[in-house]
Amino acid sequence: MAAVGGVAAVDVGGFAYAGGWLASFSGPGALTPARFADRFENVYGRHDGFRRNHAKGLSATGTFVSSGAAAEICRAAVFQPGSVPVIGRFSLGGGLPGQADKPDAVRGLGLLFQAGGQQWRTAMINIPVFTDSTPQGFYERLLATKPLPGTGKPDPQQMAAFLDRHPETVAAMKIIRQSPPSSGFADSTFYGLNAFYFTNSAGATVPVRWAVVPLQPGQPKPAPSPGATGKDFLFDDLIRTLAQGPRQWRLAITLGAPGDATDDPTKPWPPSRRTVDAGTLTIDAVHTEEAGNARDINFDPLVLPDGISASDDPIPKARSAVYARSFSRRAEEPKSPSEVDVARVLS
């Protein structure tokens, strides 16, 4: 946990990095970071002290042991052979910190690697492609999926109209439906989704995407119904699992080829692309969110070490700016207790 100490100062640098994108908005109809944050609050309500998206979560700590194999394609210190500390956060998609866990809820894993005096931050989810190709599409989908009072479900007409305008989302949802979720966090594969560039020590650059793939033995099993197991069954299961011992994932780096989309996360790359086994991520503990742990980390996807750079994908740039706005809002708000309590589960 001592590794968290210098995070706040680095976050300021991350906000400055996103500043160019923030300053590029102009005009009365511009899709600004503030409007994006407002849209989350409009859809989910305002919950002081919590993230506007992925509000429900648990902090985590662990290590990453690099195999050294990725050093061939990336000069970042994190890929040199050896072990580095990792701070993580498991979460559910959406802006409701007290939402009930559901088997098909989008699960997130944010990671902060610290190596060579630099940080690499990544925020991944458990679906193989993203649902939107542009920030505008994501913004429109937020409103289309807003639950109606009484039914708790989106307006079908509004959702149908959105999908008519966004065939890329229809195609992405078809791919997502073909990859049913595993039983819980510990046996989920988490995907980075967006393309980035790796540059090695010789200056050669290649487009990449990454994922962390569980190493636990056994086949994923269907998740139990939440009604039979409690409101927080996904998180409770993770807490109990890690109390029995660490869980591990393999960091798989996929190399893109000419013609592979680097600007559209709704489009998968062919499964035949070369994959590099970069090393092993071990999560050995989770923690109730409180001051001093991952609760106060902004998992800005553009906080990158030397050797990793952004591609032409517009989503990470938008996320960086909106994350900064969300972080600055919740940093000034009173903190409410986390829905998920490790001590309660283990007592």
TrEMBL record:
One of its GO terms (cellular component) is cytoplasm. The keyword Electron transport does not apply. One of its GO terms (molecular function) is heme binding. Heme binds at residue 323. Residues 2-344 form the Catalase core domain. It holds the Pfam family Catalase. The active site is at residue 54. Keywords: Heme, Iron, Metal-binding, Oxidoreductase, Peroxidase. Its cofactor is heme. It is an enzyme of class 1 (oxidoreductase). Residues 256-276, 326-347 are annotated as: Disordered. Belongs to the catalase family. Has an organic peroxide-dependent peroxidase activity. This is Catalase-related peroxidase. It comes from Mycobacterium angelicum.
